[in-house]
Amino acid sequence: MDDLTTKKCVSCNAKDMRPMTVEAAHSLIPQGWNLVTEDGMMKLQRTWKVKTFMKGMEFFKLVADVAEAEGHHPDLHLVAWNNVKIEIWTHAVGGLTENDFILAAKINRLDLHQLLSRKVGE
């Protein structure tokens, strides 16, 4: 598998762009991410627990900077006060494209440790 972090998201306006198959999606899924299906549409989803509400806002800013640089924008959710959830899919095609996996891989590379709550036993 290619290193997705070295790739750049492409325009979603291409008329020939189609959602990928479940098999193709499973071959690209980055560590820590889950494939979910909502309303017949595949999405990438991942959750984190942050230390504080403001750490959640910092987390979103780091993700937003990557998303803006790629021109590909995820759905960001802060649930309760410290549960961050990101959902990624290509809205223009109603499913997953390589762009989604590129963005997820780049989010995985972010240094988020100072924002995250420690798990019991760490």
TrEMBL record:
Domain of life, per lineage: Eukaryota
Coiled-coil annotated residue ranges, if any: none
UniProt entry keywords in alphabetical sequence: Lyase
InterPro entries, A to Z: PCD_sf, Pterin_deHydtase
EC number: 4.2.1.96
Catalytic activity: (4aS,6R)-4a-hydroxy-L-erythro-5,6,7,8-tetrahydrobiopterin = (6R)-L-erythro-6,7-dihydrobiopterin + H2O
Cross-referenced PANTHER family: PTERIN-4-ALPHA-CARBINOLAMINE DEHYDRATASE (PTHR12599:SF0)
Homology family: Belongs to the pterin-4-alpha-carbinolamine dehydratase family.
Full protein name: 4a-hydroxytetrahydrobiopterin dehydratase
Natural source organism: Coffea arabica (Arabian coffee)
Name of the gene: LOC113708902
